[in-house]
Write a structure and sequence with these properties.
The chain is built from nine helices and no strands. The protein is mainly α and 194 residues long. Helix 1 packs across helix 2. The radius of gyration is 19 Å and the shape is elongated. Helix content is 71%, strand content 0%.
Amino acid sequence: MARTKEFDEDAVLLKAMQLFWEQGYEKTSMMDLVSQMGVHKRSMYDSFGDKHSLYIKALKRYSEMIDKSVKRIINGSISAKETIRLVLETAIRRDDDELPKGCLMVNTAVELAPHDSESRAWVNQSLTDFEQLIRELIEAGQQSGELDKMLNAEWLSCYFNNAFTGLRVLAKTTDDREKLMQIVETTMSILKIN
């Protein structure tokens, strides 16, 4: 007779995600995971597979969490520029002090993507999705007359993706909120109509 799980799989996955986010893939041992997740090693393997499989599931969960946050911003915003600004500010906002600084996806891009095709695919999809979101917001702003139609939405989406990624890195290394907000302001200035 199969045993029933004695833990909330999503809650345990969130704990693993936070540990990977804080320590990185290589530094996180199986013992660290067992301790952080509060499950037996055998239960962890049965539910999530090996360390790499668990990491990919944590990365997927992270991606879902970020998507949900961005959708909340989009649904609550009144303009394309406001939405882009608020999305940029998510890179530096610390609403949840329990979450590590920075970005698990950026960490993955630096640590695993160069030599792990599955991680690279997740990172590339995340970057592509972000660029598409920004491009759609710029195009919506152009259609409404808020943004100049001469702006190249495709290239600006790449520019904003680069700025957003940089902000996520800086947010991990500095507590200077004024500096980070000034970077957001400078980045947003490219959308001003001349």
